[in-house]
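User: Triosephosphate isomerase, Kluyveromyces lactis:
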Amino acid sequence: MHTPRLPVLTLVKTPLNKSRMSVLNGLSWVTLKEELTSTKLMKSSPKKPNLLWTAVSRLSLCIGETLEEKQQNITLQVVQRQLQAVLEKVQDWTNVVVAYEPVWAIGTGLAATAEDAQDIHHSIREFLAEKLSRDVADSVRILYGGSANGKNAVTFKDKADVDGFLVGGASLKPEFVDIINSRV
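Assistant: Predicted structure for Triosephosphate isomerase:
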């Protein structure tokens, strides 16, 4: 059984290029959003390593589907494709947090139900077990990042594969305390 832990994350939205790489040095965590997991940011070769993978020591990897992909019932295929893009690039999975953050829920006030999130998180964990190992899968923290708020956070408490939250706008509101308290 995995041990849930709540990480401290630093969000970086700065586009990455050589002149901006110094912004990553010294950060404890870097968040890589969904839209970047399948782009040239993820591509590298032995002759030309990707700047991200040479600068980042701890990564919060956000994965999730669009509303159109959800309606097509291809959520699992989408998140597996996004995970597959980084499997060979990550050397130490103890320094990775996976955040399931459905794109359709970001900033909309809409959220997956706790049961739906648990099912998807469990599928993510099983995918990691199949591709990496059971030990890695059980130790990776998988957070929910789709419009978690003070009211819905408590419904996630008993979900075995939901290890915490990646909180956006609600972190600036008084209800953030309720989100934190929901995990205690």
